[in-house]
Amino acid sequence: MSLKTPHNFHLPVMGLAFSIDSPLKVARFGISSVVSLSDDSLLEHTRSHYANLYNKPYQPITDKEEDYRANRTTAFLNLLHEIVEEQMAALKLQDFTPDAELSKYFTLLPEDAPLKLKYNKMLQTSDEALRQQLQTELRNSLVAGKIDVNIMTKLDKTNYDKSGAPLPAEFSDALAALRGFTNSKVQASVVFSAGMNMRLFAYLEQFPCFLPNAKGDYDKSVIIKVSDYRSAMVQGKILAKKGIWVSEYRIESGLNCGGHAFATDGYLIGPILQEFKENREALRSELYSLYSSALASKGIHVPGEIPGQRITMQGGIGTADEHNFLLRYYGLDATGWGTPFLLVPEATTVDEPTLQQLSDARGEDLYLSPISPLGVPFNALRGTSSEQLKQMRIDKGKPGSPCVKKHLVSNTEFTTEPICTASRKYQRRKLEQLQEQLDTLAITPENYKAEEIAVLAKECLCEGLANSALQIFNIGKKAANTAVTICPGPNLAYFSGIFKLHEMVGHIYGRFNALNKSYRPHMFVNELKMYIDYWKNKKAEQLETMTDKQEKYLQNFWQNMQEGISYYKTIVPELFREQLERQVILFDELLEAEDFLQQISLKRAQVLA
Prior knowledge:
- This protein is α/β, with parallel strands linked by helices.
- Helix content is 47%, strand content 8%.
- The chain is built from 21 helices and 11 strands.
- It has helices spanning 22-26, 40-53, 68-92, 101-107, 114-124, 128-140, 173-182, 198-203, 229-240, 269-297, 320-329, 352-360, 385-395, 424-439, 445-456, 461-464, 467-472, 501-508, 523-542, 548-575, 580-608; strands at residues 9-10, 33-36, 147-152, 189-193, 221-226, 246-252, 259-260, 310-314, 334-336, 366-369, 378-381.
- The strands form 2 sheets. An 8-stranded parallel sheet has the order 1-9-8-6-5-4-3-2. Strands 7-11-10 form a 3-stranded antiparallel sheet, with no helix packed on it.
- Strand 10 (366-369) and strand 11 form a beta hairpin.
- It starts with 8 loop residues before the first strand and ends with a helix.
């Protein structure tokens, strides 16, 4: 792998388009980012755009070619790799003038970073010989941010040949994307999200790039995005038994995040981080035992020392104090900042109308929506152009979207081959079925209306999450190519305006304030409130027909939140050292949440009585 990058934060994957070209914007400043491999046509469009922009040869890879999905992925990543290498080479040739990107590389760094200290020493020295020596050392220390990739494990549909016969398993969406990554020149990591895919995990074994060399290094590595410690242990063991080492666990808040929200059973992020803190070395040791046995059985050199394993966290972080606390108290290696960077055109790709909507958004504009065809709650922004297009189709009596890309197909209620619940094909049939049930009195008008709303809520995320880049790249002229879905986390409510890269990075490191004037509770309290609302909604949905299993689930959820509050109360002094007023405010907010939980629990007991 490449040298360690100099920053202690990264840009997570954002939708399909919003971080698709982030490496070309931030990697030359040592900032790592993650691009989605879910949409191969978007990768191909982006490659075409940047090949033209940088005067690179471009040979289209059409969907008529064999293994086109993997080949598009490889070609796209190779172009990113080539351009970033050229950017780094150009950076080294620049002078240390105030407005040079070479100077910007070092000014962006945290104040206590060794390279930042050396840079400041270079600026302050009057000894010309020493200045030249330090400048040479600084140039030689330049390291690009990593071009990591994301594969959402649930997006792994089977693909078919021209005759309609299913292709072999290795041509499925996720496996083809992984193959494309492994064949590329980038030395980086693949981030697996959204849970386990045993077929995908087994496929990893075929690629030597994930295995250690004689020095114990890897050409490419694996990162797992998890919501809790148990998930990390389970997935880590599965991969270790295959001789695959998890180089990093990215812990993400279940609800206080962008995109799909995979809620825990009431386990809050603080206690989850505490469990990782207490068991980090035990986790490494247990996985190393399985890992070394697997390598030995394959006749592969076993590293003499336990490989490194980074622990990072993302989702809802909003201040330098929170960032520093996570690094200091839990010993995290880095944090992930996604949603705030949607307001930074120097880092992400968001079309102008949507960017303005994001900038103006308030708390009420951000909600946990039912729009995802996957049936998973999805953090979204109200009033997007995609939402407007969906409503226009409904008003015209033609609900649903044309399903072109088919990345989210999953439903076989009416067909043998899976289709998407946001598609026109599915929604037409489902609404016809509901009408028949209503006509025959199989369902009540109230049930019909509820079911109709649920059906019509779904949006085409394949198009909506990709269209922002296509607009900016001036690709596609149809209406479907202009409607944008965007998936910011709730944390966006506290950021207003459009920012420069150095401003948002400065915000992370405490040199700049990007927050608006809205009162912002601590990230732990924000997430706690989201979990309380989530629990309340679940209880309301199930109250009249609640089974014993559902009641037990809700009770466990409630208990886990209570334990989380108790944990937070014990660390209030650590959260706000020598800031008594903020300690009091946080403690009061925790007591308020605790009291509210007690009250709604009593209401539940009264209903049962």
